[in-house]
Amino acid sequence: QVQLVESGGGLVQAGGSLRLSCETSGVTFGISTMGWFRQAPGKEREFVASITADGFASYADSVKGRFTISRDNDKSTVHLQMNSLAPAGTAVYSCAVKRIFAKDFAYWGQGTQVTVSL
Predict the structure, then answer these.
(1) Angle subtended at Cα 72 by Cα 101 and Cα 2, rounded to the nearest 5 degrees
(2) Residue 44 has what pLDDT?
(3) What is the per-residue pLDDT across 16-42, written as a single tens digit (0 to 9) for each?
(4) What's the confidence (pLDDT) of residue 87?
(5) Beta-carbon neighbour count of residue 38 at 10 Å?
(6) What is the 8-class DSSP label of residue 75?
């Protein structure tokens, strides 16, 4: 079965950094696109970043220059390095998988809470 487990969330002061990790199993990680999404209280889920199997990364405009997505195919793990965090970044961050030839992300982790204090 597919399993995505996020970690690395927590409380951080504005301007600080966090590194999220998503460990996967049950997916063909090396040919799958991985993504990070977030959902703040009272708001819709928002795309944050994605990385294709060949390493092409995409970012939401709101995080460009501050966040970096990366993948470790040997460990079937995707990371999200978040720098210069602001209170607007407070949200539940979730990892997701889009399989090869799939149109949408279909598998989701449980999410990890990121809280950015003033």
Answers:
(1) 50
(2) 97
(3) 999 999 999 999 999 999 999 999 999
(4) 97
(5) 24
(6) T
Q: How many residues does the chain have?
A: 118
For the chain, residues with pLDDT lower than 50 are none
Using a CB cutoff of 8 Å and minimum separation of 24, what contacts does 38-41 make?
A: 38/89, 38/91, 38/92, 38/93, 38/94, 38/114, 39/91, 39/92, 39/94, 39/111, 40/88, 40/90, 40/91, 41/90, 41/91
Pairing relationship of beta strands 67-72 and 10-13 according to DSSP bridges: unpaired
The answer to whether the CB of 79 falls within 8 A of the CB of 19 is: yes
What type of residue sits at position 20?
Answer: L
Separation in Å, CA 94 to CA 100, 118: 20, 23
Backbone φ and ψ of 66, nearest 5°:
-115, -30
